[in-house]
Amino acid sequence: MKISVCGCGWLGLPLARHLAEQGDTVFGTQRDPARAAQLAAEGIHGVAVTLPLSAAKVESDAELARLLAADVLVIAIPPGRQAGADTAFVTNVKSLSRAAQAQGCQRVIFISTTSVYGEVSGRIDESTPPQPNTTSGRAHHALEQWLRTQWQQNLVVLRFSGLIGPHRHPVKYLAGRSAIANGGDPVNLIHLDDCIAAIDAIIHRWPTQTLLHLAAPSHPGRAVYYTRMAQLAGLAAPEFQTSTPGAGKWIDARQTCAWLGLELTHADLMVRAPELPDDRRAE
Question: Beta strands 155-160 and 162-164: pairing type?
């Protein structure tokens, strides 16, 4: 298959590398032309892309047009954190979607977030109505709805919980802090390896259910979990205001896993040390 990954960052690059290793024809994007050229060493056709796209830009760039004419386009673009980032995020993704349709792209996977559920409590499944209460959550939900009108069943929305994996884990921000709120609330996390496996399954066995979400099935309380992760990483333990079970949400992804025929390899969050950079461990 010809697969294009828009956003070869922390998630997109290992995904593109995995797909290329399987023998798929893979295109990937970077904003910096030099970094885009380096993707060739990974077996990926790198294309320098700056969003938003215009029709004139696509018409003048043959490699960009080839990237957009994919069997499956994976949109794995983070919204950013600067002022106005969420508005720009919506504009950028819409321009990408329009350009992909114009070039004959067949299907789209939009990487979204479980933050679209907002501050609801208890068990959350794929049918739970979104109630986003952050700018990022509202931007992602607006794009989910807009993209559905454009692509119908040729769109899969995949909402990820908090992402963990190589050089990425929330404990590095919590270590040594005190008076942290909501210590009893359940954690909702998913490992990079399982994210890639889920996207691979969607690409090669397009599901009939096209609104999915993913989280590990273990949901320890935040105080219990992050204290243990700090211990395993050799970091100062965080201190929480309370370890009483809270009213937070927990993401139930059993249906998504069943629909995709997916068995998570990082199901138990308590047994694996955080994969932090060596310099962080030494602090």
Answer: unpaired
- Residue 182 CA to residue 166 CA, distance in Å, equals 26
Q: How confident is the model at residue 7 (pLDDT cuts 50, 70, 90)?
A: very high
Residue 134 phi, psi dihedral angles, 5° rounding: -125, 160
Give 151-195 pLDDT, tens digit per residue.
999 999 999 999 999 999 999 999 999 999 999 999 999 999 999
Residue 146 has pLDDT above 90, yes or no: yes
What gap in Å lies between CA 159 and CA 148, rounded to an integer? 14
* DSSP H or E segment with residue 73: strand 72-75
| pTM exceeds 0.85 for this model | yes
Q: How distant is the alpha carbon of residue 35 from its chain centre?
A: 21
Pair of tokens at residue 247: 């009213």
In angstroms, the Cα distances linking 72 to 104, 185, 188, 198, 208 are 10, 37, 28, 14, 16
Whats the size of the chain, residue-wise?
Answer: 283
